[in-house]
Amino acid sequence: MPPPLPSPPNGYSPFRRGWARRGGLVLLCSAAAASGVAAQEPDAAADDDELGFPAVVEVHLGVTTLADVSAGQIGAAALLDFGPVRVGGGAWEVLRRIDEGPLLSDSGLELTLGYGGALVEFPLGAAGPALRLLLGGGAATLRTRAINARLDTKTFAMVEPSANYTLAIVDHVAVGAELGYRWIRGADDLFLVGDGDLGGVQGSLFLRIGGR
Length: 212
Prior knowledge:
- The protein has 3 helices and 8 strands.
- The chain is an alpha+beta fold.
- The longest helix is centred in the N-terminal third of the chain and has 38 residues, at 14-51.
C-alpha cells in the first residue's frame, strides 16, 4: 500500500493560488497597456503640432509706384492653408494722394488707388519661398486739390503675380518680404492717367500669423 499523501498546510487552497496567478497576469497586462498609451502620446502631440492652424493672416507695409511716383502702401490678407496651396483674399491701399510727378505736378489734381481680390499662393516649403497670384479689381480716383472734390473715378481689373520669402520667428509666426508687379486693365479713359500709369512694381514687408 502506498504511503499517504502529506496534508496541505493550514490556509492553503488551490483555488486561492489560481486566483493569485490570474491577478498577477492582469497586473502585467495593465502595465503593458499603460506603457503603450504613454509611448503613443508624444506621437499624437507631434501630429497636432504638425497640423498647426488652418488659416494664415498677414499684414503688409511697403512701397509701390503709381503715376511714376513712389508711394507707401498698406495691405492685409487672409488665406486658408491646405498645405501645398493657400487660398484666400486680400486688399491694398496706397497711403497718400499722388499730386506730383510728370503727370500730375501742375494739374491741381490728386490720385488715389485701392485694389484687392482673390489670392492663390503656392508655398515651396513650410517657411521660405512661395509664389503668389492676386486676381481682382479696384478703383482709381482723381480729386481736385483746391476743394477736395471728386473729378473722376474708374474701376478696373487687375492681376498681380509676386514672390515672397518668409522666416519663422516662433511656432506659427513669421516675417517676410514680397516683390511683385501690378497689371491693370480698364482705366485708360481716366482723365490724364491710363492703365500703364496705375500699374507698377510693389514691394512689402509683412507679418504672418498662423499656418501649418
